[in-house]
Each structure stands twice: as C-alpha cells, then as structure tokens.
Write a structure and sequence with these properties.
Helix content: 25-40%
Mean pLDDT: 75
Strand content: 15-25%
Shape: globular
Number of strands: 25
Radius of gyration: 30 Å
Low-confidence stretches: 4-48, 250-288, 587-591, 646-678
C-alpha cells in the first residue's frame, strides 16, 4: 500500500506539472471574489488582488475606497487636515465645473477632487516604481469616462508661512514642494497644489515650476491659478490603448510604467503586478502600444487644430491574424476649430464601439433586435443583449424614435397641422422600425474600410413583408383604401424627416456608433471563417459579462418610459375634430430596432481612388499618430492590439474553456501540454487503484 501511495503521488505530480507549465502568468484582469477573499498579506495572492482589481471603487471596512492603477487603496475622507486644504479642494472643484470638466452624475464622465482619509489608511506610504503609493496625500483626483474609472491620482496640498519672494523664500518653498514628489525626501504624492500667500508669490512659484505639470499654484482669494494638474494622461493613454482588447489580453485603465526591481518591501509587493501587466499586453511597460487614438486623447495638443470627440466613429478594422501583428483599428472624428467634447467623451465613445463589437461577436445575430410594444412587455429585448450597452442604446433609440415622430406630428406645428388635416377615417396608428440600409465598404484582404453606414426607418407593413410576416392592420375597422391613404401620407410627410434625424441628429449618435461596430463585426465573422483571426474563438460564445452596461439601467426602465409616453402622450393639446355630434380621437404607436441583418455594398479600387484617394494612406499613418485629412475635414486616430493571444488553433471557434480565456505557454515550453495527458495520467492512476483493490480483495478471500 505504501508503494501504491507513492506511485499515485508521482502520477499526480506528473499530471499537475504540465498544467502549471501551460498556465503561464495570471491574467491581470478583473478579479474573482474568491481571489479577493484571500485577504491582505496572503503570499499566494497576486498583489493587485489584495484590495481589489485596479481602477475600481469598493467599500472596505464600511468606507468608500478607490483602488488606483497600481492596486493601492485610497480611503475617501470628509475633510482636509487644514483650512488651506479645504479651500484648495473647493477651489479646484469649482474650476473643474467652470471648465466643463467636473464629474457629471448623469453621463458619469468627468473629474473630481476628493479628500483622503490619510489617518486611517490601508497602506503605508512608499515607492511604486517611478511613483509613490500616495496614501498620505491630502486628496485624490478621480477621473471617469462614461461610468469607467480612468485614473486615481494623489494630490497633496501645502502652503507656507513665508509671505515674500526672496531667493530664500522661493528656495524654501521649492524644497518643500519637491520633497513631497516622487524621488523627494518624503515621496508622498504624485502631485502638489501650493497655496500662495500673495499674488506676487504665486506668480514667482508658478514660474519656478512652469515646466513641472505635477505642480499647481493657486491663490483662492484672488483667483490666481497656474492651471490644471497634468493628471489622468497616463490613464487616458492606457485606457485608449486597451480598446479592442478582450478580457485577459490587457487590463483596462491606466498604469505606472518603469517599475524598479524589487528592493524595498513596497516595491516587492507590486513588482509581480507590473510583470503580469507587461506579459499580458505583450510589451515591456504594461501599456499597449499608443497609436493615434491614444495620443490624440491623452495629448490632444499634438494634433493641429481641434477634434470633435463627440462625433468619434469606428471606420477601419483589420486583422492579419494573431501571429502577424494582431487586430488594427482606426476611428474618425471631424476636425474642429474649437474642440467638441472632452477627451473623456472620446474615450467613452471609443470604448462603446469596442464593447459593442465584442457584443456583436459573442451573441447570435438573431438576437440583435429590440421591441417596444405596450402589448408585449415580455418581448422587449434578448436577455443577454439587454445587459449590454449595445442593448441599452438600441432600446433608448427606439424610445427616441417615438419622441422624434411625436415632435414632427405635433398639431401646433405647420407640418403637424398639414398631416392631421390630410388624414382620413377615424383611426391612425403606425409602428416604425429602424433597420440597416446597405452599408458601403471597401475591403482588401484582411482590411475593412467603412465608407458609409446609413440607417433606414420602415413602416411595419413593409418590415413584416421583408421578414416573412403578414401585413400589419392597425385599424381593422377601417377600409383598406383609407389605411393605404394614411400610410402614404405618413411616408410622404413624416418618414423622410424621421430617417434624416436617425442619420444626423445628435440624439441618435450612440445608435450610429454601435451600428458601425455591427457592420465591422459582421465582416469580421466572415473573415474568421476564411482565416485565423485574433478573436475568432469569441464568436458565438454568448459571454457578455465584460460588456455589461455601466449605466444604472434595466430594459424595463425604457419600457416603462415608453408606456408613459404611449399612455400620457408626447404632447397634450385641446384640438378636437368634430363632425356633427361625433368627436374623433386619433392615437399612434411606433415600433423597434432590428440589426439582425446587415446589407453591404462593396466598392472597387477604382471607385475608392476616385472618391477617397488618400484614405488608405491616412489610415495607415494614423496607427502611430493622429492624421488630419484637410480635404475631408476629418481626423483619423488609429491603434492596434499587440497581444498575440497564443494557444489557439487557426480559425477555432469552439475552443474549450471559458469564453474569452487564453491558454498561454511558459517560456521554452513550445505549444504547452495538451489536456489529454492530464486525463491519461488520471485514468492510469484510477486503473492502478482498481488493480490494487482487486488484489487486496482476492488476498482477503484466501
């Protein structure tokens, strides 16, 4: 029996060793609750899971805590240590509001300064690579982009009892400020805000630190301000560089690069986290390659003129395969004399396009519809699509469609007056659907250029005919002649203006953005059938956990808003139509959005050269930096996913394991050890146990 136990132990060890070799570094992505539950100080827990995933907000010991990009926790406090710190925070938040950069609870975008409870901190101060933990600073600055935490930066407030501007005064002030920053005597914060005693002193100190973007000089009494701290730039660049990376490829959000070798205790604590990020992203710093998109968002001044980030759209996608450079993409936004939308808005739009692309890959196209019908509360949206931003956008667009029509047919407008006067019969009820019109694209090998992506609005009678249904009869008691007359009237007066709004109005911008991702995903599905692509194993898996909406929203919220719109009406007027003793009341109901089919029209090389001769060249150059097409008045912002995503069979779409999981190999292990070896070892162990049991049974019988 002892020999049997030893043999089983050896077999188990042999079976487990290949698994460990094939596992590689742990992905630096969202952390499962069980990993967090390992508790502070657990040596087997990856450092970044000690307090939670980077760039998240948690409640720890009953206190709101922000986890920064390095996994360091910052506990929110109620006030500063000194009146000067209180005044500085209020002053800087007021400036954010004046500049339109303050956090907006409605859009969940913007920045905010918060006090830090440094007396009851969870981590001591210390070095984290080229930065500091920042847990002893007076405050933090948090930056959000459409519900995603982009950066958490430490800011310490300081002042002086000196009132002059002598060399001695300025030297003392400079030593105090420098000592707080990374590499200084205290190394306690990433940024410093200095409150000057006089305007003259403020100007002198600001001049001394004019080349240091991490020092801000203010004087709240007079309003002097040397300018916003250069915080969040690294987070913006890293977040933009993580666009179109699936879970497990690269961690979302920012990071501090340049981690020093583990020497002191704090460095050792976070060094493994830095290495995991670098390995996951296929780079040395842990930050994905910063192309035109990342540079345009994090350092917009590099781009001549302005960029209207509010109209950022995906227009290019390419994927020669994970072994040939991975996926590439390019966004386009109008050039503007004055910048439209902040960089955070642009990041939000880029992320929305990326999340929608993966949603369209993960789910089956038959689920890409939404329906607002007061008689069908149980058929609003597919359950999985309804958890995503793409599903939210489609449902909100359907509700907006009804409001747009309501404005157009309002009886107090000239158009509405003409419409109501021309109606026949005593009933008018039309439903409409937003559907794709043929998209115009140019394809070349593994590259896709989306030239046009119009949307159409169909009346339900036409929609049902195209989908194999019967004609919709909204007013069954009316004659077919009256029904046809009213429908023709709606088509002539109202429908063209609805189509124009869907394709141009700002309230449908999100819908147009997710539809562009739908066009790209449909092409990508076809490409993945022909060749190996970076994300071919995600197609049809149905896992949309990573793309759940960050909004406080559920599909039934939109349905309830629609019911209120339907029952109460978009407008209430006292106009009545009487004929003799009869009062005629007219009601209307309008339909949904259906992206289950994507018609496409391709252009030839000659047609592309005639219409957009510089397109391919501009897109290629945008992979490195923003490129302005002066002829079209557009700015191209590109990027790429460097992650090789190894361990997949060419074109495999039914890979084993969790959706989106990646099997990596340890250095020198080739392609790793396949799972059958583990199964074989287990089966051999079972046979040995069974054989020994039979021998023991025969011995007992004898």
């Amino acid at each position: 029996m002892r020999r049997l136990a030893a043999l089983i132990t050896v077999l188990v060890a042999l079976a487990g060793a290949p698994c460990a070799a094939a596992a590689g570094p742990a992905p630096a992505g969202p952390v499962a609750p069980a990993a967090v539950a390992a508790g502070p100080g657990s040596p087997s827990t990856p450092p970044y899971t000690k307090w939670g995933p980077p760039l998240t907000v948690r409640t720890i010991n009953g206190r709101r805590t922000y986890i920064d990009a390095n996994g360091v926790p910052h506990v929110v406090g109620s006030s500063g240590d000194t009146p000067d710190a209180d005044a500085a925070l209020a002053f800087m938040n007021r400036r954010l509001a004046e500049q339109g950069l303050a956090y907006d609870a409605r859009t969940k975008t913007g920045s905010e300064y918060l006090f830090q409870d440094e007396t009851n901190r969870l981590e001591e101060k210390g070095s984290v690579g080229k930065g500091v933990t920042g847990t002893t600073s007076d405050m933090i600055k948090v930056t959000w982009s459409e519900g995603r935490l982009v950066s958490v930066d430490s800011v310490d407030a300081t002042t002086t009892t000196r009132t002059g501007t002598t060399t001695e005064d300025l030297s003392s002030i400079g030593t105090t400020i420098t000592g707080k920053l990374p590499g200084g005597r205290k190394s306690q914060t990433g940024n410093v805000v200095f409150t000057a005693a006089t305007d003259e002193q403020a100007r002198a100190v600001a001049e001394r630190f004019k080349d240091n973007p991490n020092v801000r000089v203010i004087r709240p009494g007079s309003g002097f301000d040397s300018g916003e701290l250069n915080t969040g730039a690294e987070g913006l660049e890293a977040a933009a560089g993580s666009v179109f990376t699936a879970p497990g490829d690269c961690p979302g959000g920012g990071t501090q690069s340049g981690f020093a070798p583990a020497g002191t205790r704090p460095q050792a604590r976070y060094a493994a986290f830095a290495r995991a990020r670098a390995a996951d992203c296929g780079g040395t710093s842990g930050v994905p390659r910063a192309g035109g998109l990342a540079k345009g968002l994090s350092a917009p001044r590099r781009t001549p003129g302005g960029i209207d980030f509010s109209r950022l759209e995906l227009r290019y996608l390419a994927d020669p395969g994970p072994g040939a450079g991975g996926l590439r993409y390019a966004f386009r936004a109008p050039a503007a004399t004055s910048r439209g939308g902040s960089a955070l808005t642009g990041l939000g739009h880029a992320t929305q396009a990326s999340d929608s692309f993966f949603t369209w890959l993960e789910l089956d196209p038959s689920t890409f519809w939404v329906n607002l019908n007061p008689n069908e509360p149980d058929r609003i949206v597919d359950a999985r699509l309804g958890r995503t931003d793409a599903g939210r956008v489609l449902l909100q667009a359907d509700l907006t469609l009804k409001k747009t029509t309501g404005r157009l047919i309002h009886p107090d407008t000239p158009l509405g007056t003409e419409f109501w006067r021309s109606l026949s019969g005593d009933c008018m009820s039309f439903r409409t659907w937003i559907v794709p019109a043929p998209a115009t694209v140019y394809t070349k090998g593994e590259e896709l250029y989306i030239l046009k992506s119009p949307l159409n609005v169909q009346m339900e009678t036409q929609y049902l005919k195209q989908h194999g249904g019967s004609d919709a009869v909204s007013c069954p008691r009316q004659s077919r002649t009256v029904q046809d007359h009213n429908e023709a009237l709606f088509r002539r007066l109202i429908l063209p203006r609805v189509v124009e709004a869907v394709n141009t109005a700002p309230e449908y911008a999100d819908l147009r953005r997710v539809y562009l991702s739908r066009v790209a995903a449909e092409w990508y599905r076809g490409l993945s059938l022909r060749t190996r692509t970076t994300y071919s194993d995600l197609i049809g898996k149905g896992d949309v956990d990573a793309y759940a909406t960050h909004q406080d929203w559920k599909p039934v919220d939109t349905f309830n808003a629609y019911v209120r719109s339907y029952t109460d009406g978009e407008f209430k007027v006292t106009h009545r139509t009487r004929e003799g003793d009869t009062l005629y009341t007219r009601t209307y109901v309008y339909g949904g959005v259906d992206f289950s089919r994507v018609p496409v029209t391709s252009v030839s090389d000659a047609q592309l050269e005639a219409s957009s001769p510089s397109l391919t060249r501009d897109v290629s150059r945008s992979m490195e930096a923003p490129v302005t097409d002066t002829g079209e008045g557009q700015v191209w912002l590109g990027g790429g996913v460097r992650t090789a995503r190894p361990g997949r069979a060419p074109g495999a779409q039914g890979a084993q394991g969790a959706p989106g999981s990646v099997a990596t190999s340890a250095p020198g292990s080739g392609t790793g050890v396949t799972p059958w070896l583990v199964a074989a070892a287990g089966a051999l162990a079972a046979l040995v146990v069974l054989r020994s049991a039979l021998r023991l049974r025969r011995a007992r019988r004898r």
